[in-house]
User: Fold this.
Amino acid sequence: MTYSAITFAHAGGGYRLTLNRPDRLNAFTAAMLGEIEDAMRVVENDPGARALLIAAAGRGFCAGQDLGQRDVMAGPLDLGATLERYLNPLVRQFASLPIPVLCAVNGVAAGAGVNLALACDLVVAKKSARFVQAFSAIGLVPDAGGSWHLPRLMGPARAMRFSLLGEALSAEDAERCGLISRVIADEDFESEVETIFARLCNGPTHGFAQTKRLMRNSWNWSLDQALDAERDAQRSCGLASDYGEGISAFKEKRPPCFTGDAPPG
Ligand code: LHQ
Assistant:
C-alpha cells in the first residue's frame, strides 16, 4: 500500500509510524485510519519487531477526528462504526503487541488524538505540547480508550474535570498528574526521542514483552495473581539469553548487547 497521510518505516529493528497531515494538525480521516490499519498489520505480523514509535509531522500531534469530513447536515452519522472499524482495534493492538509502543507527542493533541497517545506504553511530550479532551465541546464522550485510561492514569476527579470541561492540560501538568511518562524540553525533543527509541529497539525484547504484560494486566489482577504472574515471567526471562548477557556485561563493566530473544523451547 502507498501511504500519503502517514509515513511508515522499518529501521534499527523497530517501526516508525508518523502521522502526516500537518496542515490539519494530523486529524484523522478514513483514508489515514486505513493507512494506519495497514501499517499496523505489518508490525503485528513481524515477529522480529522490537519497538514501535508513533510520531507526528508539523506543529501538532493529532487533533482527533477530522471535523471537516463530518458533514452533519447530510444526515445522521454512525460514529460508533468509525470507532469499531478503526480506533478500537488500534487501541487493542497497542495493548496487546508484545513490544513497547513509544508515543512522541510533539505538539497539541486533542480528542481521539490524546487518547490514542495514552493507549501507548510510553508517552513523551514536548514541553510546549498540550492535551485537550475536546469531545465535550462537540457533544461527544471520550473515546479511543479515554474513558478507561484517563481515570486510571490521572485519577477519577481529574479525569472528570478534563473530560467535562475540556480544559487544556500542559505537558508539564500532564506529567505531574501521571498522564504521561515524561516531558522533554522542546530543543532536545527529537534527539531524546531517538535515544529512547534506540534503547527500546536494542533492549531485552522478551523481558519488555513480559514487563508490558504484567503492567497492563495488573489493573485487573489481585496481588496474588500478580505475584504468580511475576514468578512465571521471571522464570521465563531467567532462561532467555539476555539475562546471561546482562550479567556478563555487568561483570565486564560494558554495555549489554541484547538479542531480545525468547528462551528456547
Ligand atoms: C482541524 C481540526 C480537526 C479538521 C484543527 N479537524 N481540522 C473519533 C473517531 C470517530 C468518531 C467520532 O469522533 C472521534 C473522536 C474525536 O476525535 S472528536 C474530537 C475532534 N477534535 C476536535 O474537536 C478538536 C478541534 N480542534 C481544536 O480544538 C483546536 O484546533 C486544537 C485545540 C486541536 C488546536 O488549536 P490551535 O493550536 O489553536 O490550532 P487551530 O485551531 O488554529 O487549528 C489549526 C488548523 O487545523 C485550523 O485550520 P486553518 O485552515 O484555520 O489553519 C483548524 O481548522 C485545523 N484543525 N483541528 N479536528
Observations:
- The beta strands are 6-11, 14-19, 51-56, 60-62, 101-105, 108-110, 122-126, 130-132, 168-170, 182-184.
- Residues 24-25, 27, 63-68, 79, 82-83, 87, 108, 110-112, 132, 134-135, 138, 140, 143 surround LHQ (CB under 6 Å).
- The chain has ten helices and ten strands.
- The chain has a mean pLDDT of 96.
